[in-house]
Structures are given as C-alpha cells and as structure tokens.
Amino acid sequence: MAFTVEKGRVTVERVQTGVRLEKRLLKVLKSLADYHDVSLGDLIEGIVLHAFEGKAPFGEESIARIRDLKAVFGLTLDASHAHRLQEGESG
Q: What are the Cα distances from residue 68, in Å, to 5, 15, 45, 49, 72?
C-alpha cells in the first residue's frame, strides 16, 4: 500500500525531486505557502490533488492573495501560457 490512514491522518512516502519552475511563479508559490503556513511541497500536493479531481484548489481569499503576489513579483503568465513556455538562453 502506498499510504496508510490513521486517526484521520494519511501517512505517505515522499521523495525529493528536482522540478524546474519559472522563477516568478516559484516566488508566488513560496509566498503563498508561507501565507498559509505550509511547506511549498504541501501546497503543490494540495494543488495537484484538487486538479486531479477537477476541483479548484483556492477560495476567493486565496485568489485575491495570488493576484496581489503576482503583481508584486511581476508574474504576468496565466493559464493561456501553459504548454507554451520555453527556457531562455540563461536557463
């Protein structure tokens, strides 16, 4: 079994990964994780688990916070840019 459930808590096996992300996107994610007092990994896991079920991972308050953080870090990318990003020469 990949995970166990005990008293409402789910025990999983995590692995370290070397995922590369767009710099400003990562800054927004880290800041959002800090705002919610969770680790970056926990935030990403939550986003993915919601997406796998076709559910929105954030409520109105978090969406507003994300909008503010995107402005702070100059992140102008949106969903329309997905699958069209390419690495710059310095990357």
A: 37, 31, 22, 24, 6
Pair of tokens at residue 36: 């919610």
Owning domain of residue 49: 19-79
pLDDT tens per residue, range 29-71: 999 999 999 999 999 999 999 999 999 999 999 999 999 999 9
Question: Secondary structure of 9-57 in the HEC alphabet?
Answer: EEEECCCCCCCCCCHHHHHHHHHHHHHCCCCHHHHHHHHHHHHHCCCCC
In a domain, 87, yes or no: no
DSSP string spanning 72-88? Answer: HHT----GGGTT-----
Tokens of 76: 């102008």
Number of independent structural domains in the chain: 1
- Give Rg (Cα) of the chain: 15
Asked whether residue 59 is assigned to any structural domain, the reply reads yes
